[in-house]
Amino acid sequence: MAFGKYTVAALTLLASPVMAAGTDDLKDSEILAIYAQVNSFDIETAFLAISKDCAASTTELARHLSTDHLWVRRTVLDLAVENGLTYTLPAARIEAQITHDATMARLSELECDRFDGAFLEHDVAFHEAAIDAVRTVLLPAADNPALKSHFQDILPAFEHHLAMAKAVKAGGSVSDVANGGTE
Ligand SMILES: [Fe+2]
Fold first, then answer.
1. How far is the CA of 127 from the centre of ligand 1 (A)?
2. What is the distance in A from the centroid of ligand 1 to the CA of 106?
3. How do the pLDDT tens digits run along the chain, 183 residues long?
4. How many angstroms does the Cα of residue 82 sit away from the middle of ligand 1?
5. In angstroms, what is the span from residue 17 Cα to ligand 1's centroid?
6. Ligand 1 centre from 183 Cα, in Å?
7. How far does residue 28's CA lie from ligand 1's centre (Å)?
8. CATH of region 8-15+27-173
9. Which pTM was predicted?
């Protein structure tokens, strides 16, 4: 699969050395660990938004995101245990961790007058990248049927998160988007 077809956002999410190695080379154990890592990133930024307690619409969105991604992370852990799969984080994923830590540090320092906009901009880009990564990298590379099914089933929920984040970013609320999430 060609490296060049991926978006900048997807590259930010999935460190380029992993992509450059070719998606077919990703083992299920690596896919699971990458997926857990990415879910954890969104859980952390959502908890940060909840703790900031700025605009009510942003806090409400963050509660949805944290609840859903905790559920996804646990569900996939159960799937892994049931299927005898392990987690192996590729060494190259330290780049994604460094990027995420910088994002957390940057967002943490913002007061409410700037936090909401920065968080929402980050979260829209994050979900666009996550959806792209699941659809074009993780799903095609997964071998285990249960894992493949999970990715197919979860994409509408991720699309729902993206729609909610866009709605809040545009000045609306999560209730402006029809329910299609995991809740
Ligand atoms: Fe999400």
1. 6
2. 20
3. 222 333 334 445 554 333 444 555 899 999 999 999 999 999 999 999 999 999 999 999 999 999 999 999 999 999 999 999 999 999 999 999 999 999 999 999 999 999 999 999 999 999 999 999 999 999 999 999 999 999 999 999 999 999 999 999 999 999 999 765 444
4. 24
5. 24
6. 12
7. 21
8. 1.20.1260.10
9. 0.85
Q: Where are the domains of the chain?
A: 8-15+27-173
Give a three-class secondary structure readout of the chain: CCHHHCCHHHHHHCCHHHHHCCHHHCCHHHHHHHHHHHHHHHHHHHHHHHHHCCCHHHHHHHHHHHHHHHHHHHHHHHHHHHCCCCCCCCHHHHHHHHHHHHHHHHHHCCCHHHHHHHHHHHHHHHHHHHHHHHHHHHHHHCCCHHHHHHHHHHHHHHHHHHHHHHHHHCCCCHHHCCCCCCC
